[in-house]
Amino acid sequence: MRIPTAEADIPQAIAALAAMGKPFALAVVLADSGSTPRKAGTKALIDESGAIDGTIGGGPVEAEAQRRAVVAIDTGEPVVFDFAMQGPAVAGESPICGGSMKILLDPSAAMHAGAFARAAEARRDRKRGLLLTTIQPATAEASSAAAAQAAPANVTVQFIGADAVEKISQAELPSPGAEALRSVLAGGTTRLFAGGSRAPAAAAASGPWVLVEPLVAPPLLVIAGGGHIGQALARQAALVGFDLLILDDRPEFTDLGLYPPGAKSRLGDVAGHLAATEMDGETYVAIVTRGHQHDRAALGACVAGGAAYVGMIGSKRKVGLIREDLLACGAATAEQLARLYAPIGLDIGAETVPEIAASIVAQLIAVRRKGTAARMPTG
């Protein structure tokens, strides 16, 4: 199998594997309860040898999924199983996190390659939508609690674009219902439904289940400046799920060969490109150009926008002078500049280029996950 993929690229990988006719199973965390290594909606691909691409948590739960996936691929039957992490003692082999997970192993995922391909296309175009996975126990016996440990199932997958979700009626989708779908799309959190209502985490054994996953565009990191720090930042930010747009006025630094696959670049006036870039709560801007004049112009072009994060590299003195200049000429307000992360990155004593990039990425993650991050001291 071995198509290296980030989790966000799994829909595209499924379409590619289906086209090649390679046998594989898609592992999906349907529900989680308590302390678990991964949450509902997490996916990985497992081939007929048991090799896994991606992760659903590692350790015993992943080993069990790999073992069961080999059998599922051989039989061609999707299965659902529950895994409890409630071992009695540290000295034992059973996991002791205290949570539980419900996991689908679907060797029929290639049959739904069209839906996954549409999801992958939406992601590339930075469009929103929902992925619906419906799991129906194959037999009445499979819905019993005992059979839940390896319940054969029938699986169907649909992709619905955001526009269609807003227009869909209850009659077109009786379960879990149009309003429930719109709620998931608006809330941005994966939910498992059973019997037309939201299932509790680690849902009861009886089906059918409908896993509703909101597909939203990954956060976009706009890197103003493609020098050494910009390149290192791009490599590390890609690993944690950011889409990338690099801006520079030097052709050699917009060469896409310098950046991770999927990155985009724009050549020309950096401030002009920033001013023309639509920014929202999923946009992050890192200003790391080659000089203070370029940094000042870039900051002036985006500080009033709606980005979730704007950070600028520089010494405390440089940052202070640029702040004063933007205020004096009316290019920014004190309130807008108060949101600026500058000097950029977390205060971890970074000195080398990779360390500086790591400090910036850590700050990006904090803002993405917590809404705010610590700032460098400016006093």
Structural features:
379 residues, Rossmann fold, alpha+beta, ten-stranded antiparallel beta sheet, five-stranded parallel beta sheet
Describe what this molecule looks like in 3D.
The protein is of the alpha+beta class and 379 residues long. It folds into two domains: 7-215, no CATH class; 220-370, Rossmann fold (3-Layer(aba) Sandwich), CATH 3.40.50.720. 32% of the residues lie in helices and 23% in strands. It is built from eleven helices and 15 strands. It has helices at 10-20, 59-75, 113-124, 162-167, 178-187, 228-239, 270-276, 292-302, 316-328, 334-338, 353-370, and strands at 24-33, 43-47, 52-54, 79-84, 100-106, 129-137, 151-161, 191-194, 197-198, 209-215, 220-224, 243-248, 264-267, 283-287, 309-312. The strands form two sheets. Strands 3-2-1-5-4-7-6-10-8-9 form a ten-stranded antiparallel beta sheet, sandwiched between helices. The chain has a five-stranded parallel beta sheet with strand order 13-12-11-14-15, sandwiched between helices. Strand 14 (283-287), helix 8 (292-302) and strand 15 form a beta-alpha-beta unit. Mean pLDDT is 86; it is low at 88-92, 140-149 and 196-205.
